[in-house]
Design brief:
It contains seven helices and ten strands. It is α/β, with parallel strands linked by helices and 252 residues long. Bound molecules: S-adenosyl-L-homocysteine. Belongs to the precorrin methyltransferase family.
Length: 252
């Protein structure tokens, strides 16, 4: 059995209870060494074999899983944050399906939630934005042309941008071209929830300058939108005294 497990954004106590239990029971761990906090490996048992997937190809990862399976062992494939966001899990699952190896998926706290925690942010304020767009600039991995930053920017919704820290000048250019004001609030969160977390509030126009000043070149998220700073927003209907819900009568 292979368990795909979300490691959480960094802090070792932000893995789920289930994820921790799976780590404690695993015979073999394959962890994404570039971003998973190695402190999580302290939860594993002494006899566990540990592989760092940062140095492995997909084929090598599968080989390790296959060997463990043949020996009747349990494998945890530990991915940073939640595996469903840029986790490259589908390609592993498809090969495991072909090979008849069973697997399951234990979610984790994605770094975009870790970043909200770092900034005490709500991404969805009633009259400001009710949508969160998770995207990236293209790198070696292309982005479909219909998903351009400009096209998403046109919505002025909250945007969380992954995997793009080295491209902030171009990112700003596209965000503004697409329709955000240059002074739209933005944030850069580096290593959210890690001990060396850093966070900076800036604007769409000053993203690159802010990252440069603080030498942030990787492992960061950019949060874009008025939710980052606005002090004017509508209260929720859910907790409005005048509003009846399934669980509560309106006060008047
Ligand atoms: N599955 C992961 C994302 C993997 S892609 C998740 O759910 O978070 C890797 C990118 O995620 C990094 O380049 C960076 O943009 C972002 N990232 C991962 N962990 C981070 C953290 N703790 N703080 C800020 N950004 C992080």
């Amino acid at each position: 059995m292979v368990h795909f497990v979300g490691a959480g954004p960094g802090a070792p106590d932000l893995i789920t209870v289930r994820g921790k239990e799976l780590l404690e029971e695993a015979d073999v761990i394959i962890y994404a060494g570039s971003l998973v906090n190695p402190k999580l490996l302290e939860y594993t048992k002494d006899v566990c074999t540990i592989h760092n997937s940062a140095k492995m190809t997909l084929e090598e990862v599968i080989q390790v899983m296959e060997k463990a399976e043949a020996e009747g062992k349990t494998t945890v494939r530990l991915h940073t944050g939640d595996p469903c966001i840029y986790g490259a899990i589908r390609e592993q699952m498809d090969i495991l399906d072909q090979k008849g190896i069973s697997y399951d998926y234990c979610p984790g706290v994605s770094s975009f939630c870790g970043a909200a925690g770092a900034l005490n942010l709500e991404y969805t304020l009633p009259d400001i934005s009710q949508s969160v767009i998770i995207t990236r600039m293209e790198g070696r991995t292309p982005v479909p042309p219909k998903e351009s930053i400009q096209s998403f920017a046109a919505h002025n919704a909250t945007m969380v941008i992954f995997l793009s820290t080295g491209m902030l000048e171009e990112l700003s250019r596209r965000l503004i071209q697409g329709g955000y004001r240059e002074d739209t609030p933005a944030a850069i969160v580096y290593k959210a929830t890690w001990e060396d977390e850093k966070k900076f509030i800036c604007t769409v126009g000053t993203l690159a300058q802010t990252a440069k000043e603080h030498q942030i070149t990787k492992t960061a998220l950019m949060i874009i939108g008025d939710v980052v700073k606005t002090s004017h927003y509508d209260r929720s209907k859910l907790y409005d005294p005048d509003f009846t819900t399934e669980f509560r009568q309106a006060k008047k």
